[in-house]
């Protein structure tokens, strides 16, 4: 999944962030690097989960790709987290839902919400993670086997030797079937 599209959508569709949406590889570096005006958001990749390979003739496997939006909010007015900060969490979640839920990115089922949780809170910041995912299929065209098949020349001729008198290994007839005529 192209997280750059998610970042662009949040910058465009979530007015509370005023464009303050970025990407990160994981949560750990965000508190040290979160120097943006608040509230701000960070989009990070989550796990990919796959189902069983479902085809007996080629390749077909369902893939669920996840990502999180970690929102950093100002907590100075509500250092104990009893009121204002969690109202902001509610409001931000509503903006995220309107920006993302049901969006069908190319090649994916609609985005869905998978839940959220408090990551950290101190006197200055509240960090809250919202998880999302979308399903897609891994198809034969996505595999190395497909690439190998594309390198083969077109089948031009089928030759079959026929031993029809008795199964003694003597070929009585050869059948040649040209396919490109």
Question: What features would you describe in this structure?
Answer:
The two termini are 45 Å apart. The chain is α+β, with helices and mostly antiparallel strands. The chain is rod-shaped and about 95 Å long. The chain folds into two domains: 3-145, Phage tail protein-like (STM4215-like, 2-Layer Sandwich); 151-178, no CATH class. The chain has helices at 3-13, 30-33, 84-100, 144-150; strands spanning 21-23, 40-53, 60-74, 112-121, 125-139, 157-162, 173-178. The protein has a five-stranded mixed β-sheet with strand order 1-2-3-5-4. Helix 1 (3-13) crosses helix 3 (84-100). Strand 1 (21-23), helix 2 and strand 2 form a beta-alpha-beta unit.
What's the SSE blueprint?
Elements: H1 3-13, E1 21-23, H2 30-33, E2 40-53, E3 60-74, H3 84-100, E4 112-121, E5 125-139, H4 144-150, E6 157-162, E7 173-178
Helix pairs in contact: 1-3
Query: What is the number of strand segments?
Result: 7
Q: Tally the structural domains.
A: 2
Q: Tell me the CATH superfamily of the largest domain.
A: Phage tail protein-like
Report the uncertain regions. Answer: none
Task: Indicate the proportion of strand residues.
Answer: 35-45%
Largest sheet: 5 strands, mixed
Any idea of the CATH topology of the largest domain? Answer: STM4215-like
Number of helices: 4
Oligomerization category of the chains in this entry? single chain
Overall pLDDT: 87
Roughly how many Å is the radius of gyration?
Answer: 28 Å
Query: What is the CATH architecture term of the largest domain?
Result: 2-Layer Sandwich
Shape: rod-shaped
The CATH top-level class label of the largest domain: Alpha Beta
């Amino acid at each position: 999944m192209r997280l750059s599209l998610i970042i662009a959508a949040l910058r465009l569709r979530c007015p509370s962030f005023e464009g303050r949406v970025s990407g990160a590889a994981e949560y750990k570096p965000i508190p040290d690097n979160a120097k943006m005006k608040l509230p701000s958001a960070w989009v990070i990749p989550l796990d990919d989960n796959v189902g069983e390979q479902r085809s007996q003739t080629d390749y077909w496997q369902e893939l669920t790709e996840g990502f999180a939006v970690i929102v950093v909010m100002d907590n100075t007015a509500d250092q104990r987290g009893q009121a204002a900060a969690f109202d902001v969490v509610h409001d931000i979640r509503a903006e995220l839902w309107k920006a993302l839920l049901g969006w069908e990115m190319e090649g994916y089922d609609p985005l869905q919400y998978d839940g959220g949780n408090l990551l950290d809170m101190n006197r200055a910041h509240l960090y809250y993670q919202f998880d999302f995912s979308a399903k897609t299929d891994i198809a034969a065209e996505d595999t190395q086997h497909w690439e190998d098949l594309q390198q083969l020349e077109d089948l031009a001729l089928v030759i079959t030797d026929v031993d029809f008198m008795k199964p003694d290994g003597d070929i009585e007839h050869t059948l040649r079937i040209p396919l490109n005529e």
